[in-house]
Design a protein that fits this description.
single chain; four-stranded antiparallel sheet
Amino acid sequence: MRRDKRDVGESSPIVKCAAVVLRGNSVLLVRKRGTTDLISPGGKLERGESHVACLGRELDEELGVSLVSATYFGAYDDVSIFDRSMMITLFVYMCDIVGDPVPRSEIEAVEWVPVTCSPGDGSTFQSRVIPDIARMRGQC
């Protein structure tokens, strides 16, 4: 379902960093405890933290993996899937990791989903980022 940005207040957007972790033709998504929506691994920046440092910290805390490299993919503005009154700016990076992702901290589940050209329902990652990854890989 597309969210309507016109329904959002004028507050500053929440800035988040998101990791694209690929395995073959699948991308890693996570589900936070107590929610049903799949989202990208990553999270909010801490004061003074770089995007790459944020990704490294979040991947370690949430999934127990180490970040090897991160390459900027793009920025996405959208309405938060968890709070429709808030805008988010999602800075997305293609990431290489070491280790097998396992749910930790506030993450309840990990899921590998196919990279497809069709926008999925749900998070910005599913509806916009995954189709952009498919286009970048020449799948569309």
